[in-house]
Amino acid sequence: MTNDAAVRAGRVARDDSLRNRRPVAVIGAGRIGRAWAIVFARAGFDVRLHDAEAAALEAALPALQDSAADLAEFGLLEEAPAQVVARITLVAELADAVRDVALVQENIAEVVEAKRQMFAELDRLAPPDALLASSTSGLPASSFTEGIGGRARCLVAHPVNPPSLVPLVELCGAPWTSADTLQRAHALYADAGQTPVVVRREISGFLLNRLQGALLDEAMSLYAQGYASAADLDTVMRDGLGMRWAFMGPFETIDLNAPGGVADYCGRYGGTYRAIAETSQPFDWSPKVVAALDQERRDVLPREQIETRSRWRDRQLMALLAHRRKVASL
Questions:
Q1: Model confidence pLDDT, tens digit, residues 146-168
Q2: Bridge-partner residues for 132, per DSSP?
Q3: At the fourth CATH level, which superfamily is domain 3-199?
Q4: Phi, psi of 242 (to 5 degrees)
Q5: Where are the domains of the chain?
Q6: Segment 31-85, tens digit of pLDDT
Q7: Scanning 13, 53, 97, 261, which has its CA 20 to 30 A from the CA of 33?
């Protein structure tokens, strides 16, 4: 069975034994790890949250309580926040965290050797049928799983920050990742309330970061060439493209923007976009331009207010997610 066929089968016949029976281990109690813990706990999984640093683990509980309370305020929890957080157990020892789990979600530093060592340990300690997934945003699974005996069960499950508010998760295996692994992973993340997509073969940055990178490169280039301020370029996205992209992707967008659909749109505007591509100047990440951009942003938002603004962003995402759920049936 091909990977695509396996995934389609997984959508129909989900492995219910993975849900509400076996726990999930989340390795790393930073921002992404804590968000993953909330994702699985609110879906009914018992979660074991582990971090090698005791201070990070100690700080996790109040942060989890705050996150759950915020979600409840926007109607994004079906239970009381305390019930959700109660499913999350802080575990000091890695071996205890991964015992009898269905999935390990790793969230350590983006360092190949560190991940290689971690996955070797996870392969040794976790049950043989447990899925071993990394939240890496750029490293291919093949770079840190090749020498592992259980490498067929290893994959990347790349989330969007924070996964508790943005449901997309990109599933990407190494050349040796089995179709069964992708099928079971797709089913499990869907059961956890996420929106999994499959990257059919390894590519740097996966899908989301490559799309984001293309847009960011052009935005940086336009800023560097003096076509617009950072604030106006942000406005173009927020009040322009972002309005549609909040509920549909680029292909559906162009399909609806011409009477005859995608083919009609490409016939009308393909030449324009070819001309744009020919005049586009890739951004070279010049320190001088980056410094100017940073200063423009600091004039708007002092550095010490970034965390406060991040909390505001998360609450805006909660409001958007609540709205999307409300109108999903329309």
A1: 999 999 999 999 999 999 999 99
A2: 104, 154
A3: NAD(P)-binding Rossmann-like Domain (3.40.50.720)
A4: -60, -25
A5: 3-199
A6: 999 999 999 999 999 999 999 999 999 999 999 999 999 999 999 999 999 999 9
A7: 13
